[in-house]
Design a protein that fits this description.
single chain; 53% strand; mainly beta; 1 helix; 5-stranded antiparallel β-sheet
Amino acid sequence: MCLGDGNRFQVQGFFTAPGGTEQVAGTGGFGQDSGFLWFFDRSNIEVLIKVLDGCSLSDRFWVFGAGLTNVETRIVVTDTFTGQTREYRNLGGNTFEPFQDTDAFATCF
């Protein structure tokens, strides 16, 4: 899934069910800046994610995420203009802790 102005940020999700191997999460969108990941069934959203243009406030693009899962999760966000990536993880068996990374990408032009 690609988010942000001009679909600049690629978001990839991965999950590992207990005793399993890492698998690719399904994706869906809510609009230009936000989307979701699903693991086992498209109708069961596991993670919400958004990429916001905070350049006018902090010279950064921001990445926020919140999960509805305790499954091991890995999220990779890539700025397709620069190739820079950020990775966010949740360890299996733990409640997914929300994150608000307002320092994610210092790639404003």
